[in-house]
Amino acid sequence: MIKRKIAIIGAGLTGLALYYFLKQDGIDCVLIEARKRVGGRIFTKYDKRFPPMEMGATWLDRSHIYIHRLLDELNLEAFPQKMDGKAFYEPDPRFPFQLVDLPVQAGSSKRIVGGSSKLIEALIDRVKPKDLYLDRRVLSIQKVEGGIQLEAASQSFMVEKLVSTLPPNLFVKTIEVHPELPEDLLSVMRATHMWMGESIRMAIAYASPFWREPKMSATVFSSAGPVVELYDHSDAADHAFALSGFINSSFDALTKEERLKVILVQLQKYYGSAVYDYLSYEEVVWKNQPLTYIGYDKLVQAHKNNGHSMYNKSYLEDCLFITGTETAARHPGYMEGALVSALEIFGRLKN
Predict the structure, then answer these.
(1) Which of the residues 124, 261, 284, 326 has an alpha carbon 20 to 30 A from that of 227?
(2) Closest CA to 67 of 338, 336, 340
């Protein structure tokens, strides 16, 4: 059995940032991750021939102060999301699309140079190998004298404090807790909407940005689908080109090849036959990621219970803390929310 002061379940942005903050303060902690990779819902696919292809968290804006501070501290940069002031707009599938002017946005979105996973890489570079346990899905936790005993796949831990950064519903459905947590907390966790849970993220690379021709735009907002949102996804140097966005979740039953086929049919409406000369198509159906998503007991509306006050409390005699981007009081669901939640728990643990 491994004995440590603090264990963090989940090596996504919240977990890695919390580890980083604790270690800076000289506090002993360990990261336990169910996947064989770190990053969670920050997931960039890389190929030198194409721009970094974001499959998860992508954007930050001017109001996201903590992520800007962390990027500066880690010597990372952000660049503006390319927007040309216009968008293809399809509010009703019964009528043709329109090219419309977009309102000027004061707090324009930015992306991380090199991809969002560069932030994860910078944080994991600061994790000591002895403090990281990959491929260790947590099965149960039990309150015992002196702290919490944690059972993970092929590994046991004894810790004074335990922090879960998992999506709350995933925690409830996959980890046995003894004694049981209060029912009012469990009810909130079961009905907390999980960011990206129903999302299908896609990106498609091209040799040239044909969408920048006159009377065109990379930006699409469509109720006709399957693509409901689309944006210019070219790299920071503007040397490699792609489009990226979100697919209507009702298309999750199709195969990747079937989704690509209907996507290209849709894109042809806007751009013509050039869309078929793609270099690479990438996607992630987050609903099909069992270490991220698990179904709800009942229909849960978007953003429901994000930042709920129940997450401000500790449990199991002040030994268990529930955090993560869904629990953040500000900017829940964003990378900023992940940092807000990490900093809040850090403040409680160091006192």
Answers:
(1) 326
(2) 336
User: Nearest 5°: CA angle at 64, between 58 and 67?
Assistant: 70
Rg (CA), the chain: 21
Q: In terms of residues, how long is the chain? A: 351
The residue type found at 222 is S
Report residue 331: phi and psi, to 5°: 55, 45
φ/ψ region of 333 (left if φ > 0, alpha if ψ in -120 to 50, else beta) reads left
**Which of the four pLDDT bands, split at 50, 70 and 90, describes residue 350?**
confident
Q: For residue 147, how many C-alpha atoms fall within 13 Å in the half-sphere facing its CB?
A: 15
**Tens of pLDDT along 144-189?**
999 999 999 989 999 999 999 999 999 999 999 999 999 999 999 9
> How far apart, in Å, do the first and last CA atoms of the chain sit?
27
pTM for this model (two decimals)? 0.95
Q: For the residues of 129-179, what is the DSSP string, one character each? A: GGGEE-S--EEEEEEETTEEEEEETTEEEEEEEEEE-S-HHHHHHH-EEES
